[in-house]
Fold this sequence. Notes:
The complex is a heterodimer. By secondary structure, chain A is an alpha+beta fold. Chain A has helices at 29-44, 62-77, 87-97, 118-131, 138-141, 150-167, 192-204, 208-215, 233-239, 272-292, 298-326, 330-344, 348-364, and strands at residues 8-15, 18-27, 49-60, 82-85, 173-180, 183-189, 219-221, 244-252, 255-264.
Amino acid sequence: MNTDPPRFEAVTNFDGSEATVVLTGSVESAAAFALSATLDAAIDRHPTSMTLDLAKLDFMGAAGLIAVTNAENRLASLGVMLKVQSPSALVNGVVGILELAEKARIDRASPEHGHLGPEQMDELSVSTRRFASSLSTKDLRRVTGMPTDPDVVDGALRLIVELARISMDAADGVSVSLMRHGVLSTVAASDRTIMAMDANQYATGEGPCVDASVEGHWFHTESLDTETRWPSFTPRARSLGIRAILSSPLTAIDKPVGALNIYSRTAETFEIKDQKAAAVFAEKASVILSDARAGVSDAQMATRFQEALRSREVVSLAKGIIMERDGVDAVEAFSTLLHLSLVEGVPLLRRATAVVHSALRSEIEPGSG
Amino acid sequence: MERPLDVLDVYCREAGLSYGELWLRYFELGGMCAGFELEAFLRGVLAPSEYDHDIIALAINERLVELGGHHAVPYLHDA
């Protein structure tokens, strides 16, 4: 088995004020930081154009994609568009990460849907076999280590919207709605019609997207021609040519915070496989949101951390008591606590609390412990 | 080497824990490693000590129990 760290290299070439960054190898999480730094350094020189050459890239994980998205945003604010050469490698990597390649109906992808041509299809399946087993959703979870800047999260959600759109037959449009500061808004949408579909739901306060976001389970309307649940929203949707909607809830740390919405111009088009695919995409998005702790305020995070500190204090104290009592080291003391917790079927923290209390009692009433 | 590390990651996912939340739980139970080290353990890049492995296993298992499951992740140290 090859245990060498994956090879990665990013080389920047300036031709006048035109920058080209050539990436070689695999962008794993550590390499993503190097990639970020390289892209930032290039952008700091205010290029008039910037090209990212991915032709020699084997794989890019979510952290790398986020680095690229950030660079894209930074360049956009300078009025420069990031050009990506040979995007198929990028698309392959993303699809690999999401473990959806098997399910993705890539065969329908034609030039109008992006840059995947028939010759890339084989590459795709090869890269999938190569990466899907070992990299999979772990890579999305690497987002944990990234700053929880809303822009970063939005970039990742836009990727998911794009992937859902190209990989689901029935999807004519996809969007992600998120509750931020108590208000639902669209974070990513595949086009203006879809944007308007979401906006109509916010305006009328009803629709599958609103219900999924609030109630935390999925809503499917097979045909808006016969739909009765949302009387104000339905005619607006029909006037935009939409006939079927599938909204899956997004959650952050088990709380509903938004919805992934799949829209179709054809009634009765969503099948079980589409519902499953939508659920998978929604789950990926939820992992990103949980990691970014969307919907959880800083105050709540601070409380959670204080709680963790207090618990840790109790566990340390209990370990100290056992070390003193049994003449063992910290590792053995933990093992004793773990044993007691498993035997009694109580969480370790509760068992540790009992150890501390009993030591305190014997301190107060010598001989009773 | 067999692949006990993959087990951690599989169960971590099953428990619906993000790496961030898992780290908090690991820290609560006395774990001393930084978040990125924990992540490296789960991704199989670094091998945790038996002690760290068992704290991570416990952190995941306690979440599984909260969800109505049982201690599915095996412990290395004879507990």
